[in-house]
Design goal:
By secondary structure, the chain is an all-alpha fold. It is built from four helices and no strands. Helix content is 62%, strand content 0%. Helix 1 runs antiparallel to helix 2.
């Protein structure tokens, strides 16, 4: 009875809540950076081996490797800057104790306190602690 018919397990199971996907501009910059870094590393390795064999191609390849290193560094910085700009423009709050959450927490507490007291504010749209109630 050990070999009963069972449903085959799937090879690939998607996580419902996985790592969030990077925004398109950030992902594009990251792919560009990875490609440039990979090409630069290969170029530097070939330049090293050509230098060891005392080939005439070593000098031009070393010069282009220096340029490639500068370009690769620039592209990695571009990923960082693009990510920062994306976060700033689209209002991503990454700090757990942000002021937005603090305000929501205070409003929630005020609403719960008003509900416990059975006040009219608990059912209305203007709860205690809301900006509209404070402005009035």
């Amino acid at each position: 009875m050990e070999h009963e018919a069972r449903a085959p397990q799937q090879l690939w199971v998607d996580d419902e809540k996985g790592v969030r996907r990077m925004p398109d501009p950030v992902r594009t910059a990251a792919v560009r950076a990875v490609l440039l870094v990979a090409v630069t590393l290969i170029q530097a390795m070939v330049a090293f081996f050509l230098t060891m064999t005392e080939s005439w191609l070593a000098f031009p390849l070393v010069l282009t490797s220096v340029g490639g290193t500068i370009a690769a560094t620039w592209s990695v910085l571009d990923v960082w800057v693009t990510r920062q700009v994306w976060n700033q423009r689209h209002g991503v709050v990454s700090v757990p104790s942000s002021t937005a959450r603090q305000l929501r927490r205070e409003r929630r507490r005020a609403r719960r306190a008003a509900k416990r007291q059975g006040g009219a504010d608990a059912s209305g749209s203007e709860a205690v602690g809301s900006p509209m109630a404070e402005a009035a």
